[in-house]
Design a protein that fits this description.
The protein has four helices and 20 strands. With 327 residues, it is mostly beta strands. InterPro entries: F-box-assoc_interact_dom (IPR017451), F-box-like_dom_sf (IPR036047), F-box_dom (IPR001810), SCF_F-box_component (IPR050796).
């Protein structure tokens, strides 16, 4: 061994466009190793300028994440944070090359360790119908590609899965005022769709699908800057004519923006406020209250307060249970 100490050389501070252009061409593991090299590289490689990460869903303790580098190179990632195992999946956007990026749905087959990733998209903005593609872990490719019925629109971020079916709320193209919502149901076993119109008494401004005691529920919310009113409906899905039953309703002070979800017997909801201060420097602030409401004893409690010095939207919530499911 040499007694001569190693020479420490400063890392070159390359221009952003050069640095990000180089790392755009390398694989994900190299990028992760580079993040450990210096604080400067870590900040740059974790910036929104370089990478965009969207958590599509969480099922059985597995996160399904879509990330892209500089808006061009994108991947899907299945990740178990407990086992720290992950698997990179080719992004379906790179396969079908639509002119826009659409959301995905992620779900497990019951009593198995296999999962499916569902993608509903339009090849172009002028397309009149959507296309459905399904990637499965046991085939490792898109074994189902089919044209959707005319009423099927792209997946909403607040979709839910139940009994091998995927549900999401949407509107037709003709409904510009968004006054006639309906639920789209897709069975991954039979590869069939079903359209479920929202009951007239349940019509509101915002909607959120939830699962409560293994039953499909819809939270319908009317709100303004001061108060909100929410009704929770159980939707019993049958082929002939789905039945609707209102479970309960409640009111509150303050504006409420769904997402809302059930956790055990409680409802977890987000109260959202946005402020804009005009002056020499225009500023935006976002405040969020994460609240728990227990309908059984009619109690409500604030669990957490979040504040951002920017205009931020929280689009959805997930329930996470630790598992050792493989990816």
């Amino acid at each position: 061994m040499s007694d001569i100490p190693p020479v420490s050389l400063p890392l070159p501070k390359l221009p952003n466009e050069v640095l990000l252009g180089i790392f755009h061409l390398v694989d994900a593991s190299t990028i992760l190793n580079a993040c450990c090299t210096s604080r400067y590289w870590r900040v740059k490689l974790n910036s929104y300028e370089f990478v965009s990460i969207v958590a599509e869903s969480v099922e059985d303790g597995i996160f399904c994440i879509r990330y892209s580098s500089m808006g061009r190179k994108s991947y899907m990632l299945a990740w178990n944070p407990i086992s720290r195992r992950s698997k990179i999946i080719q992004d379906l956007v790179c396969v079908f090359k639509p002119d826009m990026v659409y959301l995905y749905a992620f779900m497990y087959y019951p009593y198995t360790l296999d999962y499916a990733i569902m993608h509903v998209f339009k090849h172009s903005s002028e397309s009149t119908t959507c296309t459905l593609a399904i990637y499965t872990s046991f085939t490792r490719d898109c074994h189902v590609v089919m044209t959707c019925p005319p009423y099927v629109q792209t997946i909403d971020a607040t979709y839910v899965t139940l009994d091998m079916c995927i549900y999401w709320v949407t509107y037709s193209h003709e409904d510009v005022e968004r006054t006639k919502p309906y639920i789209v149901c897709f069975s991954i076993l039979s590869n069939t769709f079903q359209q479920i119109f929202v009951l007239e008494q349940a019509l509101a401004r915002c909607y959120m699908l939830m699962i409560f005691n293994q039953k499909l529920c819809l939270a319908a919310s009317d709100h303004d800057e001061k108060v909100f009113h929410i009704s929770i409906w159980n939707v019993h899905v049958i082929e002939e004519d789905p039945t609707w039953t209102r479970l309960f309703m409640y009111n509150g002070i303050g504006s409420l923006f769904t997402p809302t979800m059930f956790v055990d017997e409680d409802i977890i909801e987000i109260k959202e406020r946005h402020f804009q201060i005009e002056g020499a420097d225009e500023s935006h602030f976002s405040h969020f209250h994460i609240c728990r409401y227990t309908p059984m004893n009619d109690t409500r409690r604030t669990l957490h307060w979040i504040e951002y010095e920017d205009q931020v939207r929280l689009r959805l919530l997930h329930v996470y249970y630790e598992t050792i499911y493989p990816v």
